[in-house]
Amino acid sequence: MLHFLDYAVFACTLLISSGIGVYYRFSGGKQSTTSEYLIAGQSMGMIPVAFSLMASFMSAITILGVSSENYTFGTQFTVVNLGFILTTPLCAYIYLPIFYRLKCNSVYEYLEMRFKGKVIRALASFAFTCQMIMYMGIVLYAPALSLSAITGISYTGSILGVGLCCTLYSSLGGIKAVLITDVFQSLLMFGSLIAVIVTGVSQVGSISDVFRISREGDRLEMFNISPDPTIRHTFWSQFIGGAITSATLYGVNQAQVQRLLTIGSLRRSQGSLWMQWPILACLSFLTSFAGLTMYAYYAGCDPIKSGRISKGDQLLALFALDTMGDYPGLTGLFIAGIFSGSLSTVSSSINSLAAVTLEDYIKPLVNVSKGREVFILKGLVVFYGVLSVLIAFVADLLPSGVLQASLTIFGVVGGPLLGLFSLGMLTKKANEIGAVTGFVSSLLLLFWMAFGWPRPPMSTLPSEDGINDYFYLYEISYAWYSSIGLLWTFIVGTLVSLITQRLCSPKPPS
């Protein structure tokens, strides 16, 4: 059972987050203009933006999913952090400068300018909206699952409480409140992981014991260099595939670009992008080590096989209760860290969705006065906050873990979006027909691969005897989806553009 201090720590997290939103509602620019509400009047510093970039997409999914991944399959997933060697310069020096010069509230405005058509902008914006709505459902579901596993508190109440809190401070305080709460919530995530690791290692024996037991259980693996794309995780799928997946987030995703535009100069914005890499890597490695500590602690007595929990995503919550239950307040810190992850992610998502909806759907159709734009944005934030809660209730139907589910969503939609922006920025002859054809066909291909047929069980990826009844495309690891989407969109878009230009060009007189 939880101690009173545990509940107090968690309650303080929600109160402080909400208080930040109230503070920024009545201070500074008071969120009275679209610029203030969406990009903080470009007044933010590098450090809070760097923390927010990390927290926006790595939050509760990282803490629960990566720890479970390392417990179940080993450390191969951690190679994804090396991919930022490729991702960071690509995003900082190719994509970001274009968005920064345009000063667009929606990144999809660029597509209309570049391809001289409204169709491709609408398609890309709609795909992003669907992607983020699904993702918000997962990140609300994840901490609610953990809390119900630890305390027995209502699963429904957990989702409603977190959804209400992040909707409140996001709608009141705008992007500035979101960024500052992200810093606070990031520190809670780090604190909760450190507390779990310290108490867990002390009960296992030592750090060397954790690595020894993990090595004996074949959990220490980073250099599986097999080129087979059907193996779930290899060095190449995590390094290359992970780099491209990260580029879909940090290069062309509305939520992240919007954060980078809150900084007053391009150079400092690029510096913030570089700064978030070590912050993200630290959180990722802490989470991975927490997974190894769990493996060492439960060696010989797996909680899933023994029936104590039903899903791998509940492992870290159970581990926290087993190791910190005798220390009042520490379990509450863990709960606060998990919920902080979802608060930061959902608040970032609903803010960016509000911006996209206003700029891409409402303003092109309706003449909105400057004075009413902020009012509409706040209403949209509330709408998407409520919608995220509704989606969370169906996330429990996902067959795979929260980590793979979230990365699959980003691969299926993010890869084609990255390919679309790359087509516009890296080629001169691409036109709207080619862009639409490449983008739509890429989405169809990836949705077919990811959801067109039941996936092979993880234990048979790849098949040990080399024989199975699954079509080859269904066996390809989800880690490659972004790469496939990028290449397909770019290649098909380029070819169709060249063909249509030749067909539509005027013929010389005979």
TrEMBL record:
GO terms for biological process: sodium ion transport. One of its GO terms (molecular function) is symporter activity. Belongs to the sodium:solute symporter (SSF) (TC 2.A.21) family. This is Sodium/solute symporterlike. The keyword rRNA-binding does not apply. Keywords: Cell membrane, Ion transport, Membrane, Sodium, Sodium transport, Transmembrane, Transmembrane helix, Transport. It comes from the Eukaryota. It is a multi-pass membrane protein. It holds the Pfam family SSF. GO terms for cellular component: plasma membrane. The chain crosses the membrane at residues 6-26, 47-67, 79-98, 119-141, 153-175, 187-213, 233-252, 273-298, 333-354, 375-395, 401-421, 433-453, 478-500. It is found in: Cell membrane. The keyword Cell inner membrane does not apply.
